[in-house]
Amino acid sequence: MKICIMTTVHEPFDVRIFHKEAKTLVNAGHEVVLIAPSEVKEQVRDEIRIIGLPRYKRRLFRPLNWINILWIGLQQKADAYHFHDIELLPIGILIKMLLRKCVVYDVHEHIELKVLNKEWIPKILRRPISSFIKWFEPFLAQYMSAIVIVMENQRRKFAHIGCPIVTLYNFPKKDLFSSIHSKKGDSQNIIFVGGLSVTRGALILGEIMNWVVKKHPDASLLIAGKFDTLDTEKRMLECFKKYHIEDHLKFLGYIPHDELKRYLNQARVGIFPLQPTSEYPMECQCLPTKLFEYMACEIPIVGSKMPALEEVMRDLNCGILVEPTDPKKHAEAIIYLLDNPRVAKQMGENGRRAFLERCNWEAISDRLVNLYREVLRC
């Protein structure tokens, strides 16, 4: 069957969209076309045809791509359309009406909560926009042929919908971490992978490292990711300067998906200091891929206590969870692991074992294939 994957937000080689879902569908024998913002108008990579949309620097112009993606999508005459952005829900309904084809909505996060912390949205508009999305998303989603979610805690808002709902966790691909070659040596590197924002703990990283460096002067924080805003970057750097520990901070920037393992292999501890907000409670948070990437590379985790993470780590003993807003607690957990290498090694091995056995993309990829078998009646 021919499947058309559509996004106006994500880049074409997004880990979840391209490396996991698109490749899985190709390996299952489907023809896959991916439409996404790109500098290249058209290309083929790993048997996936990629059609580029214009990249607009300002969000104000992004709606222009809604017309582009509808026109290009209609031309594909695919058997199914799989889209990844809430703004494309109306496009999905139009395609279903015009072509009588299956449409699948892939929900990456609790968007109605996420907008409440978006600094680029004026504060006065955030709550009205959130309220609108809370109604808009499930209302339009009822016309979908199927829904894909990343965490079980997303399921309840689509409970009234009769279509199939499949959970595809953001587990890393097993083949990417099939072998690991640790280069930790005597280093005391701590690593943070992913986007940096206030909610993800960017502003307490300086306080955490201040406590760590007092006990371990050779410790360094490696950051593989980008800031969500210039203001977040400025405030975080000011915190490191305040404690005179700028030399203990190493920015790696964005690391391509297939190169990340090299940097993870240099770290002794992986951290995830997620912060709660009144608008975005911990019980609604989704698990980021970074946690499982730490596990895949035998790195013990120090993270914030959150229901989803506690559920995963309860029986694994692959890290330490602490109170989210207490930087000293995060630091104490890191120091404990640095001071007790045998304990850290055992936790890392436990995480690696769990990754190999069940917390990898290959272990759940059949869910996507079976979903399409169901909706396409293959």
How would you describe the overall organization of this protein?
The mean pLDDT is about 90. This protein is an alpha/beta fold and about 375 residues long. Helix 2 runs parallel beside helix 3, helix 6 runs parallel beside helix 7 and helix 9 packs across helix 12. The protein is about 40% helix and about 15% strand. The protein has an 8-stranded mixed sheet, sandwiched between helices. The protein has a 6-stranded parallel sheet with strand order 11-10-9-12-13-14, sandwiched between helices. The termini are close together.
Record keyword descriptors for this entry.
single chain, 378 residues, alpha/beta, Rossmann fold, 2 domains, eight-stranded mixed sheet, six-stranded parallel sheet, 13 helices
Secondary structure tally: strands? 14
**Rg result:** 21 Å
Please give the largest β-sheet.
Answer: 8 strands, mixed
Spatial shape: globular
- Regions with little confidence, pLDDT below 50 for 5+ residues: none
Mean pLDDT: 90
Using the coordinates above, name the CATH class of the largest domain. Answer: Alpha Beta
* Proportion of strand residues: 15-25%
Output the strand order for the largest sheet: 3-4-2-1-5-6-7-8
Number of domains: 2
Quick structural summary:
With 378 residues, the chain is α/β, with parallel strands linked by helices.
